[in-house]
Recover the amino acids of this structure.
């Protein structure tokens, strides 16, 4: 009897973990599979076991492909929406306020000029990071998010 309960708990825990690993992506089409492979290669390339080398590299050489910069402005992302960084690299987010984020329903999301993909529900995180590398969050104000402030998977 105890072994059966242990197996059921283990199976439930494992299935819950697997569903969280896909980070609300309803289906991986070829476009997302390609981005996943690129993100995986970049993450392995960016791995540095020494924290001193990482901080020195960030301080001396910051290469960015996308910057969300709220300096000299009062930028608020609020009342329902959040920031999702999925399978990207070299992103800087600086000096913004994210608050009152709520759970949202999924739908088609346009993520480039020539692609739209289906996304399942958003769980109410202020910032969600999935399969990304070289992300810099600086002076971010986060409060009143329904789930958590930041999820990094």
């Amino acid at each position: 009897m105890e072994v059966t309960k242990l197996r059921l708990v283990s199976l439930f825990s494992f299935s819950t973990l697997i569903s969280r690993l896909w980070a609300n992506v309803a289906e991986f089409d070829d476009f997302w599979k390609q981005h996943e492979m690129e993100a995986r290669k970049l993450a392995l390339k960016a791995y540095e076991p020494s924290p001193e080398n990482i901080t020195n590299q960030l301080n001396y050489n910051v290469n960015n492909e996308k910057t969300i910069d709220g300096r000299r402005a009062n930028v608020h992302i609020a009342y329902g929406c959040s920031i999702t960084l999925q399978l990207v690299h070299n992103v800087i987010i600086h000096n913004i306020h994210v608050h009152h984020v709520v759970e949202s329903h999924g739908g088609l999301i346009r993520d480039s000029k020539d692609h739209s993909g289906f996304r399942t529900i958003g769980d109410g995180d202020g910032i969600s990071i999935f399969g990304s590398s070289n992300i810099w969050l600086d002076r971010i104000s986060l409060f009143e998010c329904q789930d958590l402030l930041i999820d990094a998977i």
About this structure: The radius of gyration is 18 Å. The domain at 24-152 is CATH 2.160.20.10 (Pectate Lyase C-like).
